[in-house]
Amino acid sequence: MSRLTIGVVLALSLASQVALAESQAEIAARENDEGKELMFAGKYPDASAKFRDAVARVPEAKYFFNLCTSLYQEGKFGEALTACNSVVQNNADDKLKDKNSKLVQKIKDTAAAQHVDLQPAGGGGGDPNVGTPDPNTGNPTTGTPDPNTGNPTTGTPDPNTGNPTTGTPVTTGAAPAGYGVGRPPEGSVIAAGPPEHNYTWTLGFDLLGGAGQIGAKNFYGQVAGGFRVKGDYMLIPAAKLGGEIYLQYQHLGASDMQIQRQGGAYDLDVIDVGVAAYKHLCLRGVDRLCLTPLVGAQLALLSPADSTDSTGSQVFNYAAVGGRAQITADIAFGRHYEHVFSAGIGINVYSASLSSPSDASAMSVGLDSPGAIAFLSLGYTYRFNTPLGRAPFIILE
């Protein structure tokens, strides 16, 4: 055989080995992605099986971390610690080590709360029936390679029976049966859930446009425009019942009949600070769409256009109380329904002014009568799945 032929054969052999190694990495990555989706769906045993397969093929720290998380969610605290031990043993970076340490402490705290005794159980990952991966191909062998031939054997014979074993195993967080097993923890430690309109809190913004009357008839214009900044908190997730705090601004121009008065045209600015309660009524068969009725109460601060202080700055020195009622159609987008666009219709109602500056009266500026503004709204809201003011506890790798 010529040197050229030998070189070609060796090159092809090396290329095939690299291709096989890449295919194992690709399979492991796919198994990991599938495991994460199963986690989001709450199918923790199935997720653990996917992560076990991933670490059996490519023992990377991130796969062990995900396996540790899924085992914890199953209530298999001992096995979870075993998998977490392997995170540090497989070249995890500092960021992952920190996440892993927090998860380990979470496992220990949950086990202690359930009076489950935990003892160190070692580490490792991979199917215990699969041997050390072939260093050239990445494929798992069935045992320790024969030192003479290089071919994988069926393992070191059992000294008692003489039967060949399956070789030196790479474990996958497996621990002795019944070791450190407790009740599955309530809730999920992962940062995102399935698309079910579940969230903890939100931040949002609405544009408002409407018509109506505030104060005395024909004193101010009947066309209003403004915006609302809001934050929601899910109070009873099972009932999809929540609370909202909001700050909204509206402006009414001058009435055609009052364009010219002693101080010039009278327009009106209104700032509302309020709280509300709402409930999502999500439609079956249209997963992304919910109808959300809401009722609220608000303090209204009002400023006729000529209300200024000694520096000439506008002041809101008239006050009233009011209410808000609306219904919106909310359509959600994103992998976990975190982006929500809404369109709604509603009404803001106001009492006559309850307070005014000492040198003026509500009657003089037309605020001695109740009023109401009907409005249309267009809005955007971003949903957060974590406790208010806290980062997600676990983000899967």
Q: Please, how many helices? A: 5
Question: What's the number of structural domains?
Answer: 2
Major sheet size, sense and barrel closure: 8 strands, antiparallel, barrel
Helix content percent band:
10-25%
Compute the separation of the termini in Å: 50 Å
Strand order of the largest sheet: 1-2-3-4-6-7-8-9
Number of beta strands? 9
Radius of gyration over all CA atoms, rounded: 33 Å
What fraction of residues sit in β-strands?
A: 25-35%
Q: Which fold name fills CATH's third level, the topology of the largest domain? A: Porin
Average pLDDT: 77
| Shape summary | elongated
Stretches with pLDDT under 50, minimum 5 residues: 121-173
Main structural class: alpha+beta
Corresponding CATH architecture of the largest domain: Beta Barrel
Order of helices and strands: HHHHHEEEEEEEEE
CATH C-level class of the largest domain is: Mainly Beta
Structure in words:
With 397 residues, this protein is of the alpha+beta class. It folds into 2 domains: 3-113, Serine Threonine Protein Phosphatase 5, Tetratricopeptide repeat (Alpha Horseshoe); 201-384, Porin, CATH 2.40.160. The protein is 25% helix and 29% strand. It has helices spanning 3-40, 44-57, 61-74, 77-89, 94-113, and strands spanning 201-213, 220-236, 241-254, 268-279, 281-282, 289-304, 318-333, 339-350, 371-384. An 8-stranded antiparallel barrel has the order 1-2-3-4-6-7-8-9. Strand 7 and strand 8 form a beta hairpin. Helix 1 (3-40) runs antiparallel to helix 2, helix 3 runs antiparallel to helix 4 (77-89) and helix 3 runs parallel beside helix 5. The chain is elongated and about 80 Å long. The two termini are 50 Å apart. Residues 121-173 have low confidence and may be disordered.
